[in-house]
Amino acid sequence: KFGDNKMPRQGIVHRLDKGTSGLMIVAKTEKMRSELVKKFKSRTIKKTYIALIGGDLSESGEIKVPISRSKYVFGKFTVNEEGKEAETHFKVIKKYRYLNKVYSLVEINLKTGRTHQIRVHFSYLGWPLVGDITYGGEALLGLKRPFLHAAKLEFIQPINGKDLCFKSDLANDL
Question: Which residues have C-beta within 8 Å of that of residue 98, sequence separation ≥ 6?
Fold first, then answer.
């Protein structure tokens, strides 16, 4: 039971944005949690996301612009040259046309892990995530959250050194 363990944050190693589906790492012991937190901080855990973007994207690209908290809207983040470094890489999986607009299903790899990073980066370029009302996305086909899914986590297990890869299929509403 999560609530019964006495570890910080009940063993949760990292967070996902509210509404994001997919994989998270939860440690069973404090030693493992501490080692995995170090791996996240050193950026040695590879995180792959799937998102549906409102726009006709190039086949691949990278977005390198700093992010900070918005000075104007509580709980929102924005591109700001005085913010923290943020780097997002993407490649298009498939494109769709719906109501005379092009949408791009993309695979995203984060080199950094800032709060709302994917959502802020794509919105900044004029390509908000479908369903992401906070950052300018449109609610399509009844989707009530950003079309964002943590699809894969890859890392070396800190204690035994084994390569681990975990995958998750898209949530049913996506």
Answer: 140
What's the CA gap between 77 and 15, in Å, rounded?
Answer: 16
Strands 148-156 and 163-167, bridge-based pairing? antiparallel
Pairwise CA distance, residues 88 & 101, whole Å: 24
- Find, among 87, 82, 78, 137, the residue nearest to 111 by Cα: 87
Asked if 148 and 128 touch (Cβ cutoff 8 Å), the reply is no
pLDDT averaged over 10-residue windows placed end to end, the chain, 174 residues: 57 84 89 86 90 94 92 87 92 94 95 88 95 91 92 90 94 90
Check: CB of residue 74 under 8 Å from CB of residue 152.
no
Q: What is the dihedral of CA 9, 75, 79, 128, to 10 degrees?
A: 100
Tokens of 135: 């950052």
Residue among 4, 17, 56, 173 flagged as catalytic: 17
Residue 120 phi, psi (nearest 5): -70, -45
Place of tokens 């035994």: 160
56 an active-site residue?
A: no
pLDDT at position 71 is: 84
